[in-house]
Amino acid sequence: MSVFNASRLLGKTVLVTGASAGIGAATAILFAKGGSNVILCARRVDALAKVAEACTSAHKESGLQQGGKFATVQLDVADKAQVASLFDKIPQDLHDVDILVNNAGFVYGTERVGDIAPSDYEAMFATNVFGLIAITQLFLKRFKAKKSGHVINLGSVAGREAYVGGSIYCATKHAVRAFTNSLMKEVVDTPIRVTEIQPGMVETEFSIVRFRGDKSAADKVYEGLHPLTAEDIAEEIVWAAARPPHVNLAEVFVLPVNQASPNIAYRGGK
User: Fold this and answer.
1) Is 33 among the residues known to form the active site?
2) Where are the beta strands (DSSP E) in 158-229?
3) Which of 27, 64, 119, 198 could be a cystine partner for 253, CB 3.0 to 4.6 Å?
4) Dihedral through CA 154, CA 17, CA 206, CA 109, nearest 10?
């Protein structure tokens, strides 16, 4: 018998952005295991197909009868036209989305202010902030109409405390935190829930992208400590979604045990 009740996930329909890898993929798979239907969105179609297969396997292994419908949608959240036409690409039987997981986001480069390429900061804001806002607005109208729904945004420790070499990424995640907090206050007179998940160090493709494909540089970020995994964060996301309707986990701040802030970590424990 399970200690915690996850039956509230049964038959729910979840849309996850950035679902082709890392936290997004792990989240989609865990929702599938919990008996939900999942719409997987990302730019990389081939990678999405593999995650959808993993979702199918996870659902089958769970033995649950509810859920089990999975759809993949090629989506760049920074593309306004793609966002506007999103429901044209979603199968009709999955249009009634219950949970939105805004996971798409990235960091590119470690340059300091004055040396940051405009294309880099424009791309980060386009995806991490403007894309998240556009997707949220699209779904919030539907959530208000049906008088239910849950928006789960992926923030970061970088949205709580800035650090050297991360001015743009930190700015985007501070924006996500402010947007999410404002949204929660704006829907306080509705049953709609709003959650922000704020991870610390998570070992995924994230740092490889930050260091422009230099895996050795990315590996050094986690050297000497046990970082979080994508699955760790997926558990927090699914846990938040599975709470009773009257319970809203407004912020979930998650760190590895040996990290205390962006710049404070103990690296002698591994």
Assistant:
1) no
2) 193-199
3) 198
4) -90
Q: Does 169 qualify as catalytic in the annotation?
A: yes
How far apart (Å, rounded) are the C-alpha atoms in residues 241 and 54? Answer: 21
Query: For the stretch 170-186, what's the b/e string if a residue is b when 16 or more beta carbons lie within 10 angstroms of its beta carbon?
Result: bbbbbbbbebbeebbee
Q: What is the pTM of this model?
A: 0.97
Tokens 């424990």, residue located = 269
Residue 72, phi then psi, degrees to nearest 5: -110, 140
Active-site pick, 173, 185, 215, 222? 173
User: Using CA atoms, how far apart are residues 33 and 100, in angstroms rounded to an integer?
Assistant: 17
Confidence of residue 1 (pLDDT cuts 50, 70, 90): low
Evaluate whether 108 touches 214 at the Cβ level (below 8 Å). Answer: no
For residue 270, is pLDDT > 70? no
Q: How many residues does the chain have?
A: 270
Give Dmax over CA atoms of the chain in angstroms. Answer: 57
Which candidate, 30, 177, 188, 9, places its Cα nearest to that of 98?
9
Grouping H, G, I as helix, E, B as strand and the rest as coil, residue 50 is helix
Q: Tell me, what's the pLDDT at 218?
A: 86
Beta-ladder partners of 259: 265
- pLDDT 10s digits, 178-237: 999 999 999 999 999 999 999 999 998 888 888 888 888 888 889 999 999 999 999 999
Q: Which of 33, 169, 220, 270 is catalytic?
A: 169
CB 144 within 8 A of CB 189: no
